[in-house]
Every structure is written in structure tokens, then in C-alpha cells.
Amino acid sequence: ILSAIFSRSIAKPLASVASHLRESAQTGSLPEFPSNSVAIHEVRQLTDSFNHAAVAIREAQANLQQAYVEFVGSLASALDARDSYTSGHSQRVSETACAVANAMQTSDEEIAQLRIGALLHDIGKIGIGDSVLQKPGALTPEEFALIKQHPTIGRQILEGVHGFQPYLPIVDLHHENWDGSGYPHGLVATAVPLCARMVHVVDAYDAKIGR
């Protein structure tokens, strides 16, 4: 009888631990067990160790995310530095697009996606020569055709990098027009995601006032 009672007293907290771990597997987030919620010393040690590990992993993820954002900002700044005319352009587009998104009451997740995607929207211009990007006069049709390739080049640069997938629609589609006259795919209306449409408008606005 004592053995059965003792067995049940262990089985219940272990079942609770297993339930939390199953939830972690489904959600992708590490659960934290309530402090002193388990009476059995050995099981409590196990949950305390798991809590310490979960906190350490979350802190590491936050640090990695911060480093990632700083890297993206540096990448955008390096691109803008190729031409004094575009200096600070990507940062301004990112900040203004996020302000627009806030005014439109879009979700925090969309705003986070917009912030990084806007910083990266012109990354494909890395593949365009300075003789075209910095040409003082009007572009020839051939030169403009080269410029129109930068969304596709940007997508090709980023699509093989883990973690950049959420920003590909902004990079690839920020020159699509509502009436289908844009590039590179000629998409119409809501076929273009909202974030890409916002970057398109803010990009054009910043280019205009920059002149």
C-alpha cells in the first residue's frame, strides 16, 4: 500500500513535467515551472534546473536577436554609403514605415517584420554597378532595366540565409504598383502584401523629399 501511494506521489509531478515539455515541443517556447510547486526534492531539483536553462536560453536568444538587428542596420548603412544621395535612406524608410504601421494599428509582429524588411529593401542594389547607381543624368532604358533587377537580386541574396525568409516579400515586392504596372512581377492590388505596399509608398516619399 505504501509503495502504491509513494508511486502515485511521484507519478503526478512527473506527469506535470511531461505535460509542460509537450507544450514546449508544440509552441517552440520553453516553459517555466512555478517555484516550489513540487514537493519531491529530486523532481523539484529537475524543474529548477530546467528553469535555469530556460532563462539562459531566452537571454541568449535576446542577445542574438539584438546582434542580428545591429548587423542588418550595418548592412543597410554600408549600402547607403555607396552614394551620398541615398545616405540614411534605408533607416528613414524603416522608421517612417513603422510609424505608418503604428498609425494603422498593425500587429507588433508585422511592425517587427516591417522594421527589418524596410532596412533591407534595397539590398539588391549591391549587385548594380556604381556607374548606373550614381549616374547623374537620366538612365537609358537598358540602365533602368538593370535597376529594375534589384528586388530580384535582393531576394536571391537573402532567400538562402536562415532567418531572413519573413522579409523576402518586402525585398522582392516593394516596387509593385496597385494597378499592376510595377516590377518585377506586375502583381495587382492585394496580391502584394501590406508590408511591401507600405515600404513602396514610404520609399517613394523619401526619394522625393530627398531631392
Summarize the structure.
By secondary structure, the protein is an all-alpha fold. The chain has 9 helices and no strands.
Order of helices and strands: HHHHHHHHH
Cα-to-Cα separation, first versus last residue: 86 Å
| Overall spatial form | elongated
Alpha-beta classification: mainly alpha
Unreliable stretches: none
Mean pLDDT: 80
According to DSSP, the number of beta strands is 0
Please tell me how large the radius of gyration is: 25 Å
Number of helices: 9
Helix content: 55-70%
Portion in strands: under 5%
Q: Main beta sheet, described?
A: none
Structure, described:
By secondary structure, the chain is mostly helical. The protein has nine helices and no strands. The longest helix is centred in the N-terminal third of the chain and has 40 residues, at about 40-80. The protein is elongated. The model has no long low-confidence stretch (mean pLDDT about 80).
List the keywords.
elongated, 9 helices, mainly alpha, about 210 residues
Topology of helices and strands:
Blueprint: H1 2-27, H2 41-80, H3 89-103, H4 108-119, H5 130-133, H6 141-147, H7 150-158, H8 168-173, H9 194-210
